[in-house]
Amino acid sequence: MNHNLAQGTDPAFCAGMTESDYRKAIGLSQSSLKIFHKSAAHYLASTEEQHEPTDAMILGSVFHALLLQPDKAKELYAVKLKVDGRSKEGRAYNESFAVENAGKFIINVEQEAQLFAMRSSVIAHPKACVLLAESDYKELPVFGTYPTPYGDVRLKGLIDAYDSRNGFVNDIKTCEDASPEGFKRAIWDRRYDFQDVQYGWLLQNAGKPVNQFNFICVEKKPPFAVACYSISAESLLKSAGRWEDLVIEYGACTSSGIWKAYSDEVIELSL
User: Fold this and answer.
1) pTM of the entire structure?
2) Domain boundaries, the chain
3) What topology is assigned to 9-49+110-256 in CATH?
């Protein structure tokens, strides 16, 4: 999967690195690049804001843990029972729960049942279960430095699952609509194609094989349908060019200190 992108320097294949340390590490992630794709000014604003995780983000993080690292999942989240907070017993429960589970994601009983049903559906899928079972790395941090005319750009990625023998990158997506048409819309809306390119570049730059990037998609409502997709080589070649342009543009903004939003000119729109 060679897009003729530049060869980077200082690659780092960091198996065993904690997610917390990964989050703190310097590097432009694919999720940040998606914001930069909207505009440099939007990206800069996002770095200056503190974001509380949404319910969807919390459920997504817990689901990834349950599916990829079930032995460690209970360290990440806790299930809070519904109690009458006005009663003495309810107040005592809420207080002790808050102390015992400080720093964890909090979900309710119904949400935990939903996540377990989603996990069971993925495990029961004949292709998805094989892709994950053959992945010898889970939650894998990878880093690399991309050279641009304006200076080097440090990139990073946290890969859900990687099969180093077959060169398969496997990414988990929770979806409202995992049908082919529904997921194609999600790819464009959320620029999952940039994620495909960036993870592939990081791994190849670290000397690791990449033959295919697979999206393992599971719907969040019954019947918790599962589907697996990959992006065609022809489509990915176009995305690789746009991704590289964005990384170079990011390098230019970093060098100049100018982070513009939209065009300064009048743009004619065709409706």
Assistant:
1) 0.91
2) 9-49+110-256
3) Lambda Exonuclease; Chain A (3.90.320)
